[in-house]
Amino acid sequence: MSAARPGGDPYARDRERMVDEQLVRRGITDTHVLEAMRRVPRHLFVDEALRSRAHGDHPLPIGEEQTISQPYIVGLMTSLLDASRDVKVLEIGTGSGYQTAVLAEIVRRVCSIERLPRLAQRARGVLEALGYANVWIRVANGALGWIDEAPFDRILVAAGGPRVPPPLFDQLAEGGRMVLPVGDDEGQVLTVVEKVSGQMVTTPHGDCRFVRLVGKYAWET
Fold first, then answer.
1. In what order do the strands lie in the sheet with 187-196?
2. Annotated catalytic, 69?
3. Which residue in 69, 79, 96, 112 is the catalytic one?
4. All domains of the chain, ordered by start, with CATH?
5. For residue 103, pLDDT beyond 80
6. More confident residue, 220 or 155
């Protein structure tokens, strides 16, 4: 959980409006997700010049040809993850750290992997400044997972690949759940993967578009 934050937040109303208009109106009902996104100061995860646009219904650039996902996608993926306080989550693609913070508000422990050192360093700095003590970030190939911390109750992949990376499924606990986009540059399908008696059970949840998941078991370039 995050540390207490000072009052007088000028963006509090923007977050309330964002949650009500972009999440609740589109059918997201998970109260843990809604409350987390009301609390996390999204504007701090983008460049200062973009803060007036931080709560809009769109992604924003964060450098290194990466983006912070639009609020609805963050809310949808977190809701599909169906996480609770007692679980450990592996996040692939730390990016700005915003999705990481939303998860950290809900679950016991977040292990997040980012392949780009500059983004990982910036995200770590913002998360530490906000007081999140249940987040660990490392720079690595996300498609390989984090074997030293496995198994994971939940896995969230914030980048699109052509298939479910086998190491990630291997590191998913029995009865666990993974949410990820699967597809190519033309488009992907947001997919829920569950491990049932060691077997992969998948459920599609609509079209989406993410940056590429890069590395072995994903896109090589």
1. 135-139, 109-114, 88-92, 152-157, 172-184, 187-196, 199-208
2. yes
3. 69
4. 12-208 (3.40.50.150)
5. yes
6. 155
